[in-house]
Give the backbone structure.
Amino acid sequence: MSDHWTILVNPRSGRRGAMVDRVEDAVRATGVMATITAPAGAQAMRLAVQEIVGTGLRHIGVVGGDGTISLVVDELMRLNLATPPVIAVLPAGTGSDFARPFAISQRLEGAVHHLAGSTDYPIDVGFVRGEWGLRAYVNVAQAGLLAASVERASRFPQAVGRVKYQAAFWATLPQFTGTEIELVTDRRTYSGPALLALVANGQFFGGGFNVAPKAALMDGLLDVQVIDAKRREALQLFPQVKKGLHLRHRSVTRFQTSAFSLTTSVPWPFEVDGDVIGRTPVTGWVEQNRLFLRL
């Protein structure tokens, strides 16, 4: 007997009725058993996750971008299940970078066949604690320039689409000022000036940028990068980041850790998976094999 899936659709991924119809048509072609629902908003999405788990189901498909996936995972982690749940990524948002290392199609119709598969890949989950409380994430947490760019991008019209993060970066760069930071990990400490600091679980973000080319989702480690670049250097570095060729640049310091704490002389915006959740300081860690991803 095949698994029964509950598929949660982010209605902001398209016109609500049209998107649900599209998901229904795509799922029907796979022959899997599925219940499809489109919660109206973030809180409704969290309640839907609670209801699914409450009925004993453990297979959840997520239709949307990285923000939707992160929200669902955060709620699953809050429930602290004894058996790791299984999620399936069905991209339909402005960015589905989390799925890229697994060669999952960026189109819903191309990704939906994974529901009928039998391979469940164990993945790590990151956690950050700050003024917001505790938040889980699957792809990346970051502070500084890139977080400020994400904050700006959130104010762009949805019609801007996938290029909004790049446009926001160029708009933010001339105005953003670096500061002194201290990033303490279980392996080493960075103290000094910085323009940004990121703690990656996944590899891609920002609309296909290979920002953490050496990150792995199953090694029990977070990939840490601190960038201390002048604005002119940042202009040169940006194209290299697209291809994952920036790690050897003199302004980039990289190391790995299972836990960290970050303080900044000036409070920096802090974001996880495309959602700005507060300001520094922050502490964080990674927990291994907390989820299964259906491939």
